[in-house]
Amino acid sequence: MVGKKFTIGWLLRGIFLWFIVFVMIFPLFHMVAVSISETTAVMSGKISFIPKGVNFDVYAKILADPSIYNAYFNTIVYTVVGVAIALFVLTTGAYALSKKRCPFGKQLNILVLITMFFSGGMIPGFLAINWLGMYNTIWAIVLPTAFTAYNMIIMRSFFAAYPAEIEESGRLDGLTDIGVLWYLVLPTSTAVLATIGLFVAVSQWNSFQAPLLYLQDSSKYPLQIILRQIVMQSITESQGTMGESAKGTQFAEDAIKYGTILVSIVPIIAVYPFLQKYFVKGVMIGSVKG
């Protein structure tokens, strides 16, 4: 009887997990199917997750825009520089705040928590960026997002749980706090560094509002801004085409939207498998211990 209940329980868990997987994967397959299907099939609105015919005109239209390659380069630069600066700021700040001997450590931790609930807002942020001379520069994109309270708390909790004996052994060998962090702590903190790096990279890659507010030169636009322009241009063209029904126009717009989404998320999807083994471990260590 116990074995039967155990088997049924595992069967129900398996069904539930497969249902979750289907719910998460179906939108991706649906977008791929719509974006590569024949135009008539897309306009019929009957595509689920199996494409009908093969048509890469949507991707040809997206990739035909010469500005998209420059936008890809800009996005990669913003992401790489943003991740490097964020990891430096978060690592040094979190390591210091994780130590009880840190001057004003309690007060600084409270200030970090306050930023999770209150912010200056859009207009003060714009005025600050402009006053600091960062408007229309890369620094307006990468510096404001270098520090976030959530990422800081994860790293601080990780460093607070780090074995004190290892740090003491380094100090006995003559290492300073910076030396202990660089030579002992960081080499054994791959999980949390990869996790926070992935958080920052995804946020930077998908950044839309900051470039829209702080960048004026179109040659500095990231991928998200250019893709939005392509979508808006395609919608305008489709709405101006004569002889199309409203329903058909809407499905044509969806094909363009899905194509741009896939073009933008492919690099992140490609990077994630290499960091997956560190991801769960880093999140759990940083969130459970503290």
Secondary structure blueprint with pairings:
Elements (H helix, E strand, L loop, with lengths): L1 H35 L2 H6 L12 H8 L2 H31 L7 H10 L7 H10 L7 H4 L6 H12 L3 H9 L4 H9 L4 H16 L3 H6 L8 H18 L5 H43 L2
Task: Fill in the keyword field for this structure.
290 residues; mainly alpha; MetI-like fold; 14 helices
* Overall mean pLDDT: 82
In the predicted model, the low-confidence regions spanning at least 5 consecutive residues are: 245-251
Roughly how much helix do the residues carry, as a percent range?
Answer: over 70%
Overall number of strands:
0
Provide the structure class: mainly alpha
The helix/strand series, from N terminus to C terminus, equals HHHHHHHHHHHHHH
The name of the CATH architecture of the largest domain is Orthogonal Bundle
Shape: globular
The number of helices is: 14
Q: Radius of gyration, Cα only, in angstroms?
A: 24 Å
According to CATH, the homologous superfamily of the largest domain is MetI-like
> How would you sum up the major sheet?
none
CATH topology of the largest domain: MetI-like fold
Approximate strand percentage: under 5%
Classified by CATH, the class of the largest domain is: Mainly Alpha
Domain tally:
2
Distance between the termini: 42 Å
